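User: Could you go from structure to sequence for me? I need the amino acid at each position, not a summary. Structure tokens:
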């Protein structure tokens, strides 16, 4: 997956003879890259068929990433991950692991529904489904782990240190502009046309 995305990003900015081979070799031999990859083996069990949406943001999956170090100006320690089932577009929202149901509902209303419109169905943790949110969480964790592994925290001109929390919009953008293996399109194109 990351090899495909690396190859896709390289094609947009640079070219050299045999570059496909070089990118593949780099991804196969990079120790850090290999250590960070996770097994994506499917869980065994009965799958429950989910109605396929006819438009973006009709159905979305959501789950939480917890156990994160404090980040942002409000010391967030969790991230609500929301993924549109139609376009595979993610939204990463920093939050607190002890947020109430009302806090979460307001976060979804203010940051998702106001932008995407009314949805038909929300799929939360449900291991019998296809695990779309769980797979997105693995991808997000891989991206954040790679960011943190290189110590890429930086200070802007005002002296503010950027951490995992302030990185989330950039990670969303990177994912939205990468071709998704199951759709052969970028989530941004599927969402906005």
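Assistant: Here is the amino acid at each position, in order:
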């Amino acid at each position: 997956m990351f090899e495909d995305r690396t190859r896709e990003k390289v094609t947009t900015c640079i070219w050299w003879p045999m570059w496909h081979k070089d990118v593949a070799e780099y991804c196969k031999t990079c120790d850090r890259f290999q250590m960070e990859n996770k097994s994506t083996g499917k869980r065994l069990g009965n799958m429950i068929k989910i109605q396929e949406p006819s438009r973006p943001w009709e159905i979305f999956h959501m789950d939480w990433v917890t156990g994160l170090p404090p980040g942002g100006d409000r010391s967030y320690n969790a991230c609500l991950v929301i993924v549109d089932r139609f376009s595979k577009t993610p939204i990463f929202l920093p939050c607190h692991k002890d947020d109430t149901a009302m806090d979460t509902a307001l976060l979804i209303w203010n940051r998702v529904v106001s932008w995407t419109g009314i949805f038909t169905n929300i799929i939360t943790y449900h291991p019998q489904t296809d695990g779309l949110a769980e797979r997105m969480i693995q991808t997000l964790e891989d991206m954040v782990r790679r960011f943190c592994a290189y110590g890429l925290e930086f200070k802007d001109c005002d002296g503010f240190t950027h951490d995992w929390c302030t990185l989330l919009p950039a990670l969303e953008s990177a994912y939205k502009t990468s071709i998704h293996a199951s759709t052969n399109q970028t989530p941004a194109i599927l969402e906005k046309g």
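One structural detail worth keeping in mind: The chain has two domains: 1-35, 55-192.
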